Amino acid sequence: MHRHSGSTRLLRFALLIVIAVLAGLIALLSIATAHAQTSPAHGPITAEGDMPMSDFLALLEQLAPAAAAGAKVYLGAVRLQCGRMPSTAELRHALAREGGDPVLMGLIRASQQQDLAARNQLVRQIRCPAGGAR
């Protein structure tokens, strides 16, 4: 049992490191793109630093494939349950706020561990913002 606890702590620590690195990269990317830079695939990036979701997910895929897989499941579940697709800024916020959105972090962990049962349970826990539910 103690060994499992150590493994869980190590996995959580690794996820926190990934989140911290991602948050730093996102902040740097936001600063770098705030001056009317363009995305080759999608044209101008807004002054707020929001980038197209496909570009953000591609970057996430390069940095942390499990995080990208968990984020894709999260986005799909929110779209199906809430009737709308979250923006890139909303996804970045869900990744970065106070250790990350618990459901999103769980989906990333389930993707890393290839745990379909945990993924399905977490998808059912997604809550829509007020007025966003179908």
State the gist of this model:
It is built from six helices and two strands. It has helices spanning 2-33, 53-63, 65-82, 88-96, 102-113, 116-123, and strands at residues 38-39, 43-44. The protein is globular.
Plain-language structure description:
By secondary structure, this protein is mostly helical. 67% of the residues lie in helices and 3% in strands. It has 6 helices and 2 strands. Strands 1-2 form a two-stranded antiparallel sheet. A hairpin with a 3-residue loop joins strand 1 and strand 2. The longest helix has 32 residues. About 6% of the residues have low confidence.
Number of helices: 6
Strand content: under 5%
The SSE string, one letter per element, is: HEEHHHHH
Described by the principal axes of the CA atoms, the overall outline is globular
Q: What is the number of beta strands? A: 2
Oligomer: single chain
Query: Describe the biggest sheet?
Result: 2 strands, antiparallel
Structural class: mainly alpha
Low-confidence regions: 32-39
* Helical fraction: 55-70%
**End-to-end gap:** 42 Å
Give the spatial strand order of the biggest sheet.
Answer: 1-2
Mean pLDDT: 78
Cα Rg: 16 Å
